Amino acid sequence: QTTEHITVEWRGRVGIITLNRPHALNALNLALGAEVVAAAAAMDTDPSIGAIVLTGSEKAFAAGADIKEMAGRSYADVIREDFFSVWDRFAAVRTPTIAAVSGYALGGGCEVAMMCDLLIAAENARFGQPEITLGTMPGIGGTQRLARAVGKAKAMDLVLTGRMMDAEEAERAGLVSRIVTTDTLLDETLAIAEKIASMSLPAAYAAKEAVAHAHESTLAAGVQFERRTFHATFALADRAEGMAAFVEKRPPTFTHA
Ligand code: HXC
């Protein structure tokens, strides 16, 4: 299925959203954002989808918000539109999400990649928040998610200088889950997505929510949230099946219930 700026594919239990504005290095205009959010929402409400992959082209995951679309806007425009808040709905997806990043992930591109639960980088990936070079600053969560992912030292370095970091540095800093060769990026990411999608979906929701909670709470409150969420998984048929399968030395059959 192809819309104007993305292609969307349901492959088994994995949903794949591919950014497809090659002439602008997948720059995120508002129409593209709305298409991604709609596709992700459709997948998120479909229990036959257990993982969502967001990717771009080999040259660019996304080279940022669309500067040409932004350039003419006034303060009154952006505050009235709550400019770029559309992406909050992508960050709120409950199904596990994976960004498969090849080439440039800059500005809004880096910010959207950081909204995903896992970030798989090709060897040629380049991450950065170059908004400062345009006289502005990150506005789709970059200052918050980058600081939480890599700490203050590197977040300040990237946000204040606008420089790019390569895949190795991004992995060392804790931004990236894994690095793979550029030509195997999609295959490797799909293998990870299929693995995640083969698990109990309600257990994955619970696990994802608990890990995400680590950024929202004190340690004591987070541990308490985790314990109660863990207890809640004992209401799942999949939890009984998973443990019974282990005891009986057979693979589990999850029904996502
Ligand atoms: C609009 C863009 C774009 C962008 C690239 N293009 N990035 N158009 N918005 N963010 C367009 C170029 O204008 C050009 O179009 C075509 O894509 C190819 O780009 P080139 O620059 O010719 O390619 P290259 O020389 O390979 O350089 C790649 C690049 C460079 C280093 C990634 O394009 C670049 O610096 N882009 C801008 C990166 C950036 O500043 N991103 C942050 C945006 S601000 P034509 O028509 O000339 O062929 C942001 C704010 C988020 O993200 C918060 C908002 C609330």
Please state the structural category: alpha/beta
Give the C-alpha Rg: 19 Å
Percent of residues in helices comes to 40-55%
Number of helices: 11
Provide the residue-averaged pLDDT.
97
The largest beta-sheet arranges its strands as 1-2-3-5-7-10
Tertiary shape: globular
Could you give the count of β-strands?
Answer: 10
Q: Strand-residue fraction?
A: 15-25%
Q: Whole-Å distance between the termini?
A: 29 Å
Largest sheet: 6 strands, mixed
The H/E string reads EEHEEHHHEEHEEHEHEHHHH
Describe the protein in words.
It is an enzyme of class 4 (lyase). It catalyses: a 4-saturated-(3S)-3-hydroxyacyl-CoA = a (3E)-enoyl-CoA + H2O; a (3S)-3-hydroxyacyl-CoA = a (2E)-enoyl-CoA + H2O. Keywords: Lyase. With 257 residues, the protein is of the alpha/beta class. Helices cover 45% and strands 16% of the residues. The protein has helices spanning 30-44, 67-70, 75-81, 88-91, 108-115, 142-161, 167-173, 185-197, 201-213, 219-232, 237-247; strands at residues 6-11, 14-19, 51-55, 60-62, 97-101, 104-106, 118-122, 126-128, 164-166, 178-180. The protein has a six-stranded mixed beta sheet, sandwiched between helices. A four-stranded mixed beta sheet has the order 4-6-8-9. Helix 5 packs antiparallel against helix 6 (142-161) and helix 9 packs antiparallel against helix 10 (219-232). The longest helix has 20 residues, at 142-161. The radius of gyration is 19 Å and the shape is globular. The model has no long low-confidence stretch (mean pLDDT 97). The structure holds hexanoyl-coenzyme A (HXC). The site of hexanoyl-coenzyme A (HXC) has 21 residues, from helix 2 and strand 6.
